[in-house]
C-alpha cells in the first residue's frame, strides 16, 4: 500500500463532481439494495410520455436507461454537475434546468429521484399529472454514521433524520398516495485512506467542515487500521418510495 501522504494527496486532487464513483473501484465496496433501482427506473421511463428526474447530479444514473420518454427533463442546482449533465444527456434530447419553479403544473407522467437531499413533496405533487407516479430511492436514517461519527463524535439528533415514516407522512400531507415503501441496511467497506478522503469530499454533508488538516489524527487512525488488513466498515441505509398523485 502506498504511503498515507501519497494516498491523501491523490484523493484531495481527484475530481468529485457528478455522481461517478468509479474512483472507489477496488478501494471501497457497498452492497446494492435488492430492488435494483436502475432497472426499475429504466422500466418506468419506457412506459411514459414525459418524466422529470430531480437532483440528477451529472446524469450518470439516468443515462443508464436505454430509452427516454419523448419529453425528459432533469433538475440540478449545482453548476458543475449541471454542466456535466448537459454534456452527457443533452445529446439524448434531455432538458437540464436548475429547479422546478418554472415547470408548469401537472406536466409530467413520472417524477423520479435517486438520493434527493430533501424531497420537495409539494412541488412533486404540483408537477405530476393526475394519476402520475413518483419513484425514488432515498438515503435513510443514520446512513454511514459509523464513519461520520469517527470524525464528529456521537450525533444522536442527526441519527433521527431521514426517517422513511416521516417522508411517507410528508408525501401524503402534500396530497400524494404512497403505494410502496421498502427499506434496506447495506454494508460498506473502505480499504485505504484515500477512499475515505475522497468520499468525504464527494459527500460534503457527511462531515461538513472536513479537511485533511483538521481531521488528520482521525484519518491516521483509520489508515493504521486498514494497513493491518482491517477494512473500515459502515452501513448505508436506503429506502424505495413509490407514490401516486
What key attributes describe this structure?
single chain; 245 residues; alpha/beta; Rossmann fold; 8 strands
What's the CATH superfamily, by name? Vaccinia Virus protein VP39
Mean pLDDT: 96
Strand order across the largest sheet: 1-7-8-6-5-2-3-4
**Rg, Cα atoms, Å:** 19 Å
CATH hierarchy, class: Alpha Beta
Please identify, by name, the CATH architecture: 3-Layer(aba) Sandwich
Secondary structure category: alpha/beta
Order of H and E elements: HEHEEHEEHEHHEHHE
Poorly predicted segments: none
Task: Give the distance, in angstroms, between the N- and C-terminal Cα atoms.
Answer: 53 Å
Helix content: 25-40%
Count of β-strands: 8
Largest sheet: 8 strands, mixed
Report the portion of residues in β strands.
25-35%
Number of structural units classed as domains: 1
Q: State the shape.
A: globular
Total helix count?
8
Amino acid at each position: 500500500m502506498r504511503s498515507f501522504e501519497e494516498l491523501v494527496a491523490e484523493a484531495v486532487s481527484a475530481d468529485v463532481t457528478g455522481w461517478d464513483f468509479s474512483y472507489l473501484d477496488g478501494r471501497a465496496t457497498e452492497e446494492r439494495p435488492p430492488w435494483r433501482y436502475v432497472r426499475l427506473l429504466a422500466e418506468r421511463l419506457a412506459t411514459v410520455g414525459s418524466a422529470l428526474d430531480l437532483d440528477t447530479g451529472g446524469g450518470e444514473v439516468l443515462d443508464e436507461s436505454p430509452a427516454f420518454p419523448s419529453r425528459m427533463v432533469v433538475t440540478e442546482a449545482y453548476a458543475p454537475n449541471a454542466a456535466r449533465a448537459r454534456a452527457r444527456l443533452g445529446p439524448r434530447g434531455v432538458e437540464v434546468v436548475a429547479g422546478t419553479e418554472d415547470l408548469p403544473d401537472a406536466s409530467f407522467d413520472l417524477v423520479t429521484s435517486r438520493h434527493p437531499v430533501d424531497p420537495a413533496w409539494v412541488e412533486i405533487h404540483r408537477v405530476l399529472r393526475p394519476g402520475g407516479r413518483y419513484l425514488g430511492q432515498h438515503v435513510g436514517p443514520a446512513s454511514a454514521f459509523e464513519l461520520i461519527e469517527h470524525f464528529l463524535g456521537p450525533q444522536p439528533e442527526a441519527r433521527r433524520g431521514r426517517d422513511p415514516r416521516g417522508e411517507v407522512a410528508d408525501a401524503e400531507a402534500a396530497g400524494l398516495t404512497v403505494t410502496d415503501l421498502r427499506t434496506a441496511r447495506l454494508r460498506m467497506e473502505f480499504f485505504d485512506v484515500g477512499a475515505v478522503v475522497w468520499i468525504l469530499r464527494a459527500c460534503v454533508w457527511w462531515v461538513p467542515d472536513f479537511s485533511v488538516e483538521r481531521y488528520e489524527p482521525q484519518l491516521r487512525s483509520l489508515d493504521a487500521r486498514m494497513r493491518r488488513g482491517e477494512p473500515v466498515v459502515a452501513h448505508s441505509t436506503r429506502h424505495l418510495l413509490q407514490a401516486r398523485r
